[in-house]
Amino acid sequence: MIYRFREMEAAPFLEGHLHLGGANPDGERIDVNSLYLTRGGKPWIPIMGEFHFSRCHREDWLKELSKIKAGGITLVSTYLFWIYHEEIEGEMNFGGDNDIRAFVLACQEAGLEVVLRIGPWAHGECRNGGLPDWLLHKPYKLRENNDEYLRQVRRWYGRIAEEVKGLFYRDGGNIVAVQLENEYVQNAEHLRELKKIALECGMEVPLFTVTGWNSACGARIPVEEVLPVFGGYCEAPWEGHTRKLAPSCHYFFNRMRNDSAIGADLIAQEKGDDWQLPYENYPFATCELGGGIQMTHHRRPIIRPMDIYAVALVKLGDGNNLPGYYMYHGGTNQLGRLSTFQESKATGYPNDYPILSYDFQTALSEYGEAREQYGLLNLLHLFLQDFQEDFAPLRAVDALESVSREDTHSLRYGMRTDGERGYVFVNHYQRLTALEEVRDVVLDTGSVVFPPIDVKGEVSFFFPFGMKLKDVVLEYATAQPICRMGNTFFFVEIPGIRARYRFSDGEEKEAAGGGVKTGKNWIFEKGNVRIVTLTWQEARFLRRLEEKDERVLYLGEECNLYTCQGELCSIEAGIHTCYRWDGAAFQPLTLGEEAREPVVSWQQVSQPPFTPPYEEELRIGGPRKVFWKKLFVEGSQGFLSIEEDYDAAQIYADGRLVADNYYSGLPWRVPAKLLAGKECYLVMSERKDDFYREDV
Predict the structure, then answer these.
(1) 45, 292, 395, 574: least CB-packed within 10 angstroms?
(2) pLDDT of 73-93, one tens digit each?
(3) Cα separation, 612 vs 402, whole angstroms
(4) Which domains can be identified in the chain, with CATH numbers?
(5) What is the pLDDT of residues 481-529, one digit of tens each?
(6) CA–CA dist 687, 572 (Å, integer)
(7) Count of beta carbons in the 10 Å neighbourhood of residue 516
């Protein structure tokens, strides 16, 4: 069957219409037009990943940022939770794990730029949305333009600006953007005032962003002053029930920016008079594409790698020119002097979260382990880094036939094009839903007709047409482009689809076989370019790393590689084989040392050794039996895996809570270094059938 596209819409191209943009001391400018961002006058697609510095130990920042960089992220966004820094009024704390300046400098060392999400209200599943308790007790309204509140905001913003003075883009630093407030939907004047205060405090950046979602017509924002950013999650653990959700709209090409489901537990479901956010004024930018999802006590979804990759790919097909993930790296909440810092029903919020764990089931876990979406997303990131100048100006074009949410048999596809060249996108994945095979698919872009393919299995991909590979024009390829190194272009073969390349002179090539290890027909030359086709399994571990001011391409053998302070490392412990691209082939090498797993033993405890300080968190939802075990951990390397059956679990080391978790059916992995050499106890509460759960 032939699949065609609608006519490309003649939308206006606007530039110079927003009060955004700025230059660094070298004269390079960052600007915003209605379709994409520019840097140095060229189209620019930053790739943003959320990582909360105050939810990670300072001594681990550089290592974890190096992993983030290796995953293709170029821009780190981070919340400043006011309650973390001023839990007690008048006692500001920007030291230790709260040192934002040291974190920004660590980002700089890792080669990453920064977005500061300065609130004042942040959410982030933090107590009071990040506002200190003492502020809530003031006799004036918060989050609006009144003198008393704005005086406090000015003090907060002023201290942040003081901490990071000299690190802004205008000074030659790596802070390029600031997000004002969060999920603030009905008061443009307050957002305008917050920007004014931030500027007066010295936070001058090219990009001021705000979250743009709302339940109806988009957030009410100061149109010329900020860039609205959007999001989309594969699940909604904030939903108030324990039933399976309807199929997510994010697995369909629909060019939707405003996901009204985000924050629906806190944002009033209302439509504002005649307001309509003018989407056509801004590029499609995101800050909260779910890199995973956090579990609530009543909803505990299990995130699968394709849940995340497919959404990210669909949004690119829909026109996204700033992919931003929340979260990209999980974290651990601090314990306050006066209270815990997690969101809970006890603090007036509709959801209960673990006291400590903010793992988010995302690309890099709470403790820095890589999940499979880490490698999958990097396929997109490498592509965007290398082809952003050509890709960003391409407009999204809809399929001729739309697909309904309940449709499991029709092809889901879209396109980005300038009318002659571009990319066709196909998504054959829906979370928790099996899709039927679609055979003999012929994609007709209007300028190029692809050969028939069968779309089957859990796949999500895009193919190029009219793509320039230096002096060679690729009429089409039934393989997905990844990146380029000099004259060599790397592609990945999509499972179930033969990689075929047709060039503008009519010549066709096929790449088949087992890839790097077998050496079967995976490299060929065309004119002055070389084309390398990797298998899907291989490409997940392709990394481009910085090495002595040189970009080097590595391929891990089932290991995730990164560089930190000039050393090539693997996220996974042990001895690993990997391959280094030498310009003509991948050359094998070995790295690492033998993994040393901890020795763990357990002892049943009949009587609680002490009264746990957070015992009420073990009995959410009503009375539950509580069970204790004493842990003996020898060795500080590696992880112990807890596979008990429980509702909520806590681990105490020398009487201090160091880890907690809600049971989902997955093993709970805890670093041995948290427990080694300490007196440790595991306390678990009885599991009942009172939460949403998925099969492992």
Answers:
(1) 574
(2) 999 999 999 999 999 999 999
(3) 55
(4) 47-382 (3.20.20.80), 394-540 (2.102.20), 599-693 (2.60.120.260)
(5) 999 999 999 999 999 999 999 999 999 999 875 667 666 668 999 999 9
(6) 32
(7) 18
